[in-house]
């Protein structure tokens, strides 16, 4: 009967007046879907210039096909609609319509997705409310487990985030906490919308409170203020480590994150809160030595491990039995450098130029003391304030004066001297010729002068130790070259700047540094870096790795402790070795809570090579280790 009517009415429309959009809407509302379809189909085929309601007509045509039961035809037109009418005001309504079509087809997964998309994108409050109700009902009841997995991993856009949260909520209600926490932590880095963020936090709080064996860890970092960039980067590494751990173990982790703004007063207040929270089994941070001291004063006597990621001042672990220094102390690095320089490199005479800060003083004093104990000689020790922009005026001038004086004394003490040349008592190549060649730029005939010339290359100092602050290296490189000193540069890990060294490689002949990690030469797994970029939208740097490794060490210890906070401290003391991505730990020192492991690296061919390492049993060179492994193979 419907086909007959179509044949009868079509000529009337064809030869009659132009179809009216409002008439089509009226027919649709009356349930006359065939008659309405004829009007909307003709209007939709008209050019937009002739019919300003072209997109509305196309939208109504899709609705008519759906009402008439031609669902696949309706879906095909719906998929074409955005390309045909990219600026249409009906695009948001289209998502709801597609959801309805899938619902009529008995496909709850697709229906849930498009209802969620409509709820996220539409500005119409009534449509948003209805779309949310449908999406939450379908995901909460109708979808099976396969549907839920497909929906949770479909996209990371705003619709995908909303759907993933609904799926996590469903798993949480059904007691599948592992599935729920996987979804939450995989999606949380992408959630920026405030409504979705609040929903994620609410779900995470529900998970945390419902899991009896959740590990509660305090994180105290400067997330604002002067050290914000360092604190935030370390926190990202901590989060990434926690995510990976929960993905592999289904163990719940709750981070209690505090921003101390690098202020001692804030740090002390936070320490009191942490001390009084019985759930917290460990604390990561704070960063600076001063704030570590404040924390130790408040939490002294409590067996909560306090892992300090960056504080390197000597003897911090003596302040509280809870303090664990993740980075090696200045004393440990300075002693290792001194022993390596004297015993392995065979250097005998040294100069030290250091900043007049506590950092520089501790490094310099510990290095000098150990060199002296080993029979080496510190010929010069100098300090500078601020950035080392001018070391030549005082420090390098005095070092050169010492070298020239030594040359003159050797020259004059030589029994042959220049006048011996006149009577032929020496031949070419004797020591006097060597001295003469060195002093030639400032010799005037046979009478030497005491005036200096930077053309004279001096090698009386075997090694110069430069413990510096980050960013200071660029000031020193040129001054070293311009003062014409032939010496072995010994540095701390703030010399670990490959780009700067590559640019000024000609200024340095020999460079050895002591570092607390393997970042200078460690090959990072590419999948690690790629995953980090995917989540945090940037490549990891030294502080990302630091946060990741600190958290990894703590979680490994917690696992051995059986998730027991009361046993964690004891496990950390008695399980001293941990190998992270770039940071390795060997607890030692007087308290067995200082990282004793340090690495020696030589700068060769514009890259750093591992020379050896010191642990709490002594020095191991890479050459000896390679020889041992070769003999074992043979």
SSE topology sketch:
Blueprint: H1 2-15, H2 21-29, H3 33-45, H4 54-67, H5 71-84, H6 91-104, H7 108-121, H8 125-142, H9 145-152, H10 158-173, H11 177-187, H12 194-210, E1 215-221, H13 228-249, E2 253-259, H14 264-275, E3 280-284, H15 289-299, E4 306-308, E5 323-325, H16 330-344, E6 349-355, H17 358-373, E7 377-384, H18 392-413, H19 431-439, E8 443-444, E9 447-448, E10 463-466, H20 473-482, E11 488-491, H21 498-503, E12 510-515, H22 526-536, H23 542-560, H24 565-574, E13 577-579, E14 584-588, E15 594-595, E16 598-604, E17 607-615, E18 618-621, H25 622-633
Parallel strand pairs: 1-2, 1-3, 3-4, 4-5, 6-7, 6-10, 10-11, 11-12
Antiparallel strand pairs: 8-9, 12-16, 13-14, 14-15, 16-17, 17-18
Helix pairs in contact: 1-3, 2-3, 3-4, 4-5, 5-6, 6-7, 7-8, 7-10, 8-10, 9-10, 10-11, 10-12, 11-12, 13-23, 14-15, 16-17, 18-19, 23-24
Polypeptide structure, described:
It is a single chain. By secondary structure, the protein is an alpha/beta fold. Among the domains are: 212-327 and 524-590, Response regulator (Rossmann fold), CATH 3.40.50; 331-414 and 455-515, Rossmann fold (3-Layer(aba) Sandwich). It is 53% helix and 14% strand. The chain is built from 25 helices and 18 strands. It has an eight-stranded mixed beta sheet with strand order 7-6-10-11-12-16-17-18, sandwiched between helices. Strands 2-1-3-4-5 form a five-stranded parallel beta sheet, with helices on both faces. A three-stranded antiparallel beta sheet has the order 13-14-15, with no helix packed on it. Strand 6, helix 17 (358-373) and strand 7 (377-384) form a beta-alpha-beta unit. Helix 6 runs antiparallel to helix 7 (108-121). The longest helix has 22 residues, at 228-249. The protein is elongated.
């Amino acid at each position: 009967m419907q086909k007959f009517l179509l044949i009868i009415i079509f000529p009337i429309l064809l030869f009659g007046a132009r179809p009216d959009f409002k008439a089509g809407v009226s027919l649709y509302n009356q349930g006359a879907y065939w008659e309405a379809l004829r009007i909307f189909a003709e209007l939709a085929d008209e050019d937009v210039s002739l019919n300003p309601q072209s997109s509305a007509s196309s939208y109504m045509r899709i609705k008519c096909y759906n009402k008439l039961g031609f669902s696949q035809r309706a879906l095909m037109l719906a998929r074409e609609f955005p390309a045909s009418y990219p600026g249409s005001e009906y695009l948001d309504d289209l998502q709801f319509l597609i959801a309805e079509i899938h619902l009529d087809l008995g496909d709850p997964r697709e229906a849930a997705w498009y209802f969620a998309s409509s709820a996220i994108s539409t500005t119409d409050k009534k449509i948003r409310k209805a779309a949310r109700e449908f999406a939450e009902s379908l995901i909460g009841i109708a979808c099976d487990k396969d549907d839920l997995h497909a929906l949770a991993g479909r996209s990371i856009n705003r619709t995908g985030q909303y759907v993933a949260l609904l799926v996590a909520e469903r798993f949480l209600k059904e007691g599948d906490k592992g599935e729920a926490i996987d979804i939450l932590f995989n999606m949380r880095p992408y959630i920026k919308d405030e409504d979705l963020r609040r929903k994620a936090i609410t779900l995470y709080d529900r998970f945390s409170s419902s899991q009896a064996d959740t590990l509660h860890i305090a994180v105290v970092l400067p997330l604002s203020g002067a050290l914000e960039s360092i604190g935030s980067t370390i926190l990202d590494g901590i989060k990434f480590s926690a995510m990976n751990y929960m993905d592999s173990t289904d163990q719940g982790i709750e981070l209690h994150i505090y921003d101390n703004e690098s202020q001692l007063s804030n740090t002390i207040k936070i320490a009191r809160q942490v001390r009084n929270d019985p759930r917290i089994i460990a604390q990561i941070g704070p960063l600076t030595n001063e704030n570590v001291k404040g924390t130790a004063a408040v939490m002294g006597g409590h067996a909560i491990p306090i892992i300090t990621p960056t504080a390197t001042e000597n003897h911090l672990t003596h302040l509280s039995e809870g303090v664990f220094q993740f980075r090696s102390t200045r004393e440990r690095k300075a002693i290792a450098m001194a022993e390596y320089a004297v015993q392995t490199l065979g250097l005998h005479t040294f100069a030290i130029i250091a900043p007049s800060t506590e950092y520089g003083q501790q490094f310099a004093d510990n290095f000098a003391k150990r060199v002296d104990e080993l029979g080496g000689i510190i010929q010069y020790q100098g300090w500078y304030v601020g950035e080392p922009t001018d070391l030549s005026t005082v420090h390098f001038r005095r070092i050169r004066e010492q070298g020239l004086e030594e040359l003159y004394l050797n020259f004059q003490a030589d029994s042959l001297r220049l006048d011996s040349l006149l009577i032929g008592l020496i031949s070419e190549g004797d020591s006097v010729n060597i001295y003469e060649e060195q002093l030639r730029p400032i010799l005037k005939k046979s009478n030497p002068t005491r005036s200096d010339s930077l053309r004279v290359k001096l090698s009386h100092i075997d090694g110069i130790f430069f413990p510096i602050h980050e960013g200071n290296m660029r000031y020193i490189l040129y001054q070293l070259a311009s003062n014409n000193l032939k010496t072995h540069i010994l540095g701390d890990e703030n010399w670990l700047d490959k780009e700067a060294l590559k640019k000024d490689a000609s200024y340095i002949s020999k460079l050895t540094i002591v570092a607390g990690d393997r970042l200078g030469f460690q090959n990072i797994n590419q999948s690690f870096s790629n995953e980090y970029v995917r989540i945090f939208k940037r490549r990891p740097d030294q502080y990302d790795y630091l946060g990741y490794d600190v958290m990894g060490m703590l979680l490994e210890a917690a696992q051995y402790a059986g998730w027991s906070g009361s046993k964690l401290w004891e496990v950390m003391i008695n399980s001293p070795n941990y190998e992270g991505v770039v940071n390795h730990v060997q607890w030692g020192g007087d308290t067995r809570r200082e990282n004793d492991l340090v690495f020696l690296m030589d700068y060769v061919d514009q890259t750093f090579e591992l020379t050896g390492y010191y642990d709490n049993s002594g020095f191991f060179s890479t050459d000896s280790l390679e020889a041992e492994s070769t003999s074992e193979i043979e």
